[in-house]
Amino acid sequence: MTNEHRVIYEELCLGQVKEASRHEYLRIMAHMQEAGAEGIIERCTEIVMLIQQEHTDIPLFDTTAIHAEAVVTMALR
User: Fold this and answer.
1) In CA terms, which of 4, 53, 56, 74 is 20 to 30 Å from 43?
2) Regarding the domain delimited by 3-75, which CATH topology (the fold level of the hierarchy) does it fall under?
């Protein structure tokens, strides 16, 4: 199991938010930004527990929020 999966399944799924894990995710995100990423898709619902926009200057895209907004928009048509 990769460290990223361990954080998700052994911490976040159990409601544990550890600063060391946040730091590691931010380190990875900074590396991605240096490599040219212009935004980060938070594709796992638990990641938003760990990383919020206030933690980084790179734009974050929460797929749960994006999908929920789309469903509401469709439902209101």
Assistant:
1) 74
2) Rossmann fold (3.40.50)
- Domain coordinates in residue numbering, the chain: 3-75
Global confidence as pTM: 0.83
Would you list the DSSP string of 6-74? HHHHHTGGGT---HHHHHHHHHHHHHHHHTT---EEE-STTHHHH--GGG-SS-EEEHHHHHHHHHHHH
77/69 Cα distance (integer angstroms) = 13
Read off the pLDDT band of 47 (50, 70, 90): very high
Q: Are 5 and 12 in contact (CB under 8 A)?
A: no
